Amino acid sequence: GDVSLRALDEAAAGVPIGCEGLCVLETFQGSRTPVTDPLARGALVGLTLRHTAAHVWRALLEAICLGTRAAVEALEAATGEPPAVLLAAGGATRSPLWLQ
């Protein structure tokens, strides 16, 4: 059935950081900043029968956030200073879990 993103967020908030061993490589559309590789492929690793949709959702969010952190760190390395502001826009801004 239909599961809302709000419901997934609420369920994923109860999943421990690290998703109990479930890991996502979020390069399903290739890789971008800081390493450009259009042929990169995503992966879901460590999936077991005890993992739920909430685990998968949280693992995706953690992977996207890690990629964002890598891009911010590359920007800081290139400019010599951290960005003064990080601005989030779009649908992700409706997810308190994603923005934490």
TrEMBL record:
PROSITE patterns: FGGY_KINASES_2 (PS00445). It comes from the Eukaryota. One of its GO terms (cellular component) is cytoplasm. Keywords: Kinase, Transferase. Residues 11-100 form the Carbohydrate kinase FGGY C-terminal domain. InterPro entries: ATPase_NBD (IPR043129), Carb_kinase_FGGY_CS (IPR018483), FGGY_C (IPR018485). GO terms for molecular function: D-ribulokinase activity. It comes from Haptolina brevifila. This is Carbohydrate kinase FGGY C-terminal domain-containing protein. PANTHER family: FGGY CARBOHYDRATE KINASE DOMAIN-CONTAINING PROTEIN, RIBULOKINASE. One of its GO terms (biological process) is pentose metabolic process.
